[in-house]
Amino acid sequence: MSCNIAIAGVTGAVGQEFLRILEERDFPFSSVKMLASARSHGKKLTFKGREYTVEEMTDKSFDGVDIALFSAGGSRSREFADAVKKAGAVMVDNSSAFRMDPDTPLVVPEVNPEAIKDHKGIIANPNCSTIIALVPIWPLHNANPVKRMVVSTYQAASGAGQAAMDELALQSKDILAGREARCEAFPYQIAFNLFCHNSDLKPNGYNEEEMKMVNETRKIFSCPDIAITCTCVRVPVMRAHSESINLEFDSPITADEVRELLSTAPGVTVLDDRENNRFPMPIDADGKDDVYVGHIRQDESIPDNRGINLWVCGDQIRKGAALNAVQIAERLV
């Protein structure tokens, strides 16, 4: 069944990825509206061999639209949510605006696709790091409940948008040329450096990005008691996030059992070549749909073989954002 779609924030990094993925997956649409802020009004974009004109997003933009893919920031999502619903469309939102709203499904299609049917006009896309972690954790949790997760993320510049990616490239050139690095998109130098994630700190000392992993995982898994702690770090990688994941299970599980479970898990590619010390790298995941998993090993500090360590890499712009939203949209048509 074809539908009429709108892409809000089409000129941004995720918006551009929406267009690539919709074309690659031959998404069934009858019409598409290219929406952005006033400063992009009139810009020309080519999609599936046809030229489109970017329109300024207004309350009237969603008339006749069935699905609106949003990547325009939380404030814009909140601003236009009522207009989308009034038009009878469904908003699939990449921002954090509605993720923890109890009436809004928070969906990773490989994990909880059944939640989509409960939407009331809005479906939320989880945070990129949450998606990348949960795609491989879910099949393990299904087989043997996870009691505790300890996650450290190594997040690429892509997570902060195109301006941050441009800044990483520019800073790298400047530093190699002996010039001082200029910081605009990030508060600190990102080239040849790393720093704790630059999201707002909460009263408990964790930053907002770290708490997203905690709260979103509990909601997606429908498991409010699962113990989770997280440390999020920005690293000088252009695209694709990496994560070190330590899992404590309810019952014993071996590294070989984990490899077997993940070898058939949807959205997962196992890259676990111990002989050559070859495990996932961001360049493996860059531009790919799957989450790459490797360096699978027993956590010998946890008794009774109940602990496992994983290393994962996933493309933040694709599976961590645009692809996940398009997969949700595919289940709506």
TrEMBL record:
<dbReference type="InterPro" id="IPR012080">
    <property type="entry name" value="Asp_semialdehyde_DH"/>
</dbReference>
<dbReference type="InterPro" id="IPR005986">
    <property type="entry name" value="Asp_semialdehyde_DH_beta"/>
</dbReference>
<dbReference type="GO" id="GO:0004073">
    <property type="term" value="F:aspartate-semialdehyde dehydrogenase activity"/>
</dbReference>
<feature type="binding site">
    <location>
        <begin position="158"/>
        <end position="159"/>
    </location>
    <ligand>
        <name>NADP(+)</name>
    </ligand>
</feature>
<dbReference type="GO" id="GO:0046983">
    <property type="term" value="F:protein dimerization activity"/>
</dbReference>
<comment type="subunit">
    <text>Homodimer.</text>
</comment>
<dbReference type="InterPro" id="IPR036291">
    <property type="entry name" value="NAD(P)-bd_dom_sf"/>
</dbReference>
<feature type="binding site">
    <location>
        <position position="234"/>
    </location>
    <ligand>
        <name>substrate</name>
    </ligand>
</feature>
<feature type="binding site">
    <location>
        <position position="155"/>
    </location>
    <ligand>
        <name>substrate</name>
    </ligand>
</feature>
<feature type="active site" description="Acyl-thioester intermediate">
    <location>
        <position position="128"/>
    </location>
</feature>
<keyword id="KW-0521">NADP</keyword>
<keyword id="KW-0028">Amino-acid biosynthesis</keyword>
<dbReference type="InterPro" id="IPR012280">
    <property type="entry name" value="Semialdhyde_DH_dimer_dom"/>
</dbReference>
<feature type="active site" description="Proton acceptor">
    <location>
        <position position="241"/>
    </location>
</feature>
<feature type="binding site">
    <location>
        <position position="208"/>
    </location>
    <ligand>
        <name>substrate</name>
    </ligand>
</feature>
<keyword id="KW-0560">Oxidoreductase</keyword>
<keyword id="KW-0791">Threonine biosynthesis</keyword>
<keyword id="KW-0220">Diaminopimelate biosynthesis</keyword>
<keyword id="KW-0457">Lysine biosynthesis</keyword>
<feature type="binding site">
    <location>
        <begin position="11"/>
        <end position="14"/>
    </location>
    <ligand>
        <name>NADP(+)</name>
    </ligand>
</feature>
<feature type="binding site">
    <location>
        <position position="99"/>
    </location>
    <ligand>
        <name>phosphate</name>
    </ligand>
</feature>
<dbReference type="GO" id="GO:0071266">
    <property type="term" value="P:'de novo' L-methionine biosynthetic process"/>
</dbReference>
<feature type="domain" description="Semialdehyde dehydrogenase NAD-binding">
    <location>
        <begin position="4"/>
        <end position="119"/>
    </location>
</feature>
<feature type="binding site">
    <location>
        <position position="316"/>
    </location>
    <ligand>
        <name>NADP(+)</name>
    </ligand>
</feature>
<comment type="function">
    <text>Catalyzes the NADPH-dependent formation of L-aspartate-semialdehyde (L-ASA) by the reductive dephosphorylation of L-aspartyl-4-phosphate.</text>
</comment>
<dbReference type="GO" id="GO:0009089">
    <property type="term" value="P:lysine biosynthetic process via diaminopimelate"/>
</dbReference>
<comment type="pathway">
    <text>Amino-acid biosynthesis; L-methionine biosynthesis via de novo pathway; L-homoserine from L-aspartate: step 2/3.</text>
</comment>
<feature type="binding site">
    <location>
        <begin position="39"/>
        <end position="40"/>
    </location>
    <ligand>
        <name>NADP(+)</name>
    </ligand>
</feature>
<dbReference type="GO" id="GO:0009088">
    <property type="term" value="P:threonine biosynthetic process"/>
</dbReference>
<dbReference type="Pfam" id="PF02774">
    <property type="entry name" value="Semialdhyde_dhC"/>
</dbReference>
<keyword id="KW-0486">Methionine biosynthesis</keyword>
<protein>
    <recommendedName>
        <fullName>Aspartate-semialdehyde dehydrogenase</fullName>
        <ecNumber>1.2.1.11</ecNumber>
    </recommendedName>
</protein>
<dbReference type="GO" id="GO:0009097">
    <property type="term" value="P:isoleucine biosynthetic process"/>
</dbReference>
<dbReference type="GO" id="GO:0050661">
    <property type="term" value="F:NADP binding"/>
</dbReference>
<dbReference type="InterPro" id="IPR000534">
    <property type="entry name" value="Semialdehyde_DH_NAD-bd"/>
</dbReference>
<dbReference type="Pfam" id="PF01118">
    <property type="entry name" value="Semialdhyde_dh"/>
</dbReference>
<comment type="pathway">
    <text>Amino-acid biosynthesis; L-lysine biosynthesis via DAP pathway; (S)-tetrahydrodipicolinate from L-aspartate: step 2/4.</text>
</comment>
<dbReference type="GO" id="GO:0019877">
    <property type="term" value="P:diaminopimelate biosynthetic process"/>
</dbReference>
<comment type="similarity">
    <text>Belongs to the aspartate-semialdehyde dehydrogenase family.</text>
</comment>
<dbReference type="GO" id="GO:0051287">
    <property type="term" value="F:NAD binding"/>
</dbReference>
